[in-house]
Inverse folding.
């Protein structure tokens, strides 16, 4: 019998490791240290088989921008997974039912997440609200459709000196764009950390800030993956 219940502080690391197994990953101590900083410990649920944690889920406490303006309290669903040894036994359904009941009891009108497998969450009442994608552009085959005159300046900064300007630009966009959420101090700390496990063979992260009349108006965060082949550079 799999039991769904809150995870006490002493079990949080075991819960984190169990989710690593569920996702087929091996999280490092450095990753755990960062994730622990933004984890809402009182919103962590575990799937227990006796005293063993075989999966679980959690939620962040967000304020999310909605159409029409303003922000509402939102449960940011995260870390949902069941170990492969305990799937097809109703554990995920029980977990999601408990979490949604907790969200309703907390008075949060929304629950939202970036789904690793979107078809899973439709079974529990979630619907598609936004699309996320990537675009690869070969620089030597790309051009602006219309002429663009350079305005302002661009500065490269380290994370610490870029932070205030990044937050200013983000908040300007967040307040008018549905689906954006308020980032706390801890969220910015974790976002701007640049540990090796995040690089995946690429360079450190660069922070480019666009300024106009001394005010930040945009930014790009990027890495470079070096690839010097026999015919010359093919970096990404």
């Amino acid at each position: 019998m799999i039991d769904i219940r809150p995870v006490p502080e002493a079990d949080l690391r075991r819960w984190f490791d169990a989710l690593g197994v569920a996702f087929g990953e091996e999280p490092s101590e450095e990753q755990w240290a960062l994730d622990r900083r933004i984890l809402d410990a009182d919103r962590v649920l575990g799937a227990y088989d006796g005293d063993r944690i075989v999966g679980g889920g959690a939620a962040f406490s967000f304020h999310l921008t909605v159409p029409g303006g303003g922000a509402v309290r939102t449960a940011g669903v995260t870390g949902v997974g069941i170990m492969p040894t305990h799937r097809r036994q109703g554990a995920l359904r029980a977990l999601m039912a408990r979490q949604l009941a907790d969200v309703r009891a907390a008075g949060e009108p929304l629950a939202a997440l970036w789904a690793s497998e979107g078809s899973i969450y439709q079974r529990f009442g979630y619907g598609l609200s936004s699309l996320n994608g990537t675009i690869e552009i070969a620089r030597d085959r790309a051009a602006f459709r219309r002429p663009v005159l350079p305005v302002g300046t661009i500065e490269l900064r380290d994370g610490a000196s870029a932070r205030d300007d990044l937050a200013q630009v983000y908040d300007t966009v967040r307040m008018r764009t549905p689906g954006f959420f308020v980032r706390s101090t801890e969220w910015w700390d974790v976002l701007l950390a640049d540990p090796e496990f995040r690089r995946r063979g690429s360079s450190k992260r660069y922070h480019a800030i666009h300024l106009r009349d001394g005010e930040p108006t945009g930014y790009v965060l990027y890495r470079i993956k070096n690839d010097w082949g026999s015919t010359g550079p093919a970096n990404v």
Summary: The mean pLDDT is 93. Helices lie at 12-22, 29-38, 91-105, 118-121, 159-174, 185-192, 196-199. DSSP finds seven helices and ten strands in the chain.
